[in-house]
TrEMBL record:
Residues 28-216 form the Transketolase N-terminal domain. It holds the Pfam family Transketolase_N. SUPFAM superfamilies: Thiamin diphosphate-binding fold (THDP-binding). This is Transketolase. It comes from Streptomyces cirratus.
Length: 233
């Protein structure tokens, strides 16, 4: 299984141009741009999945729970060759596969249909359990959520179960832009640590710090990375 960093000629600097191809109302721009650096580092340097391996049993799974405002996700997928860049200009159109929420039945490389808050992490737990049951111990499962999704009880049930089940191949990235209604003493990472996770808080725009956090060892425990970005206004 190979990484995708050499699959296309696109670079991080090209992503703004790709996002600009997607026009129209209801874009949820801040929801998209807050995820851009995390998505790029994951797909460029961490995830073992590409267009040729998008259906392979041994691939890493990436689940975008923060599916409202998916333009950065679409831009990264296009940059990595999962679908043609020309699709981006049709974003949100009646006959376009690129809807305002991703659809796994229409878009190559998309693992789940998402956008409703609180679904991605429970699906990630189920995916990790399913892989374990099949004896597939190598694939990693990555879930990207927004901090406001932690207002949903389903996420707390999922993270509590993942810690007790020692789902070492499960990883969660929390985009923290101060959107959550509730807080926790010590910050979001402390909530995961209390449930038995490994957790790191980093600057969500610092690619080197993100990569180090994504690849930090966490034997016997699921792993959470809290990516702090600018406050949403």
């Amino acid at each position: 299984m190979t990484q995708t960093n050499a699959d296309t000629a696109f670079r991080y600097e090209d992503l703004g141009r790709l996002i600009a191809l997607m026009t129209g109302a209801e874009k949820h721009g801040p929801a998209a741009t807050s995820t851009l650096d995390v998505l790029w580092v994951l797909y460029d340097r961490v995830l073992r999945v590409g267009p040729a391996s998008a259906q392979a049993a041994g691939r890493d799974r990436f689940l975008l729970s923060k599916g409202h405002g998916p333009m950065a996700y679409y831009a990264v997928l296009a940059a990595k060759g999962f679908f043609p860049v020309e699709w981006l200009g049709r974003f949100g159109g009646f006959d376009s596969p690129l809807g305002h929420h991703p659809d796994r039945t229409l878009i190559p490389g998309v693992e789940i249909a998402s956008g409703s808050l609180g679904h991605g992490l429970p699906l990630g737990v189920g995916t990790a359990l399913g892989l374990r049951a099949q004896g597939l111990d190598d694939p990693a499962v990555w879930v990207l959520i927004g901090d406001a999704e932690l207002d949903e009880g389903s996420n707390h049930e999922a993270l509590a179960y993942a810690g007790s089940a020692a789902l070492e191949r499960l990883h969660t990235v929390v985009i923290d832009n101060d959107s959550a209604t509730h807080g926790w003493p010590g910050g979001i990472a402390s909530r995961f640590e209390a449930a038995g996770w490994s957790a790191i808080t980093v600057d969500g725009r610092d690619h080197a710090a993100l990569h180090a956090a994504f690849t930090a060892p966490h034997p016997g425990r699921p792993h959470a990375v809290v990516a702090r970005v600018e406050k949403k206004f």
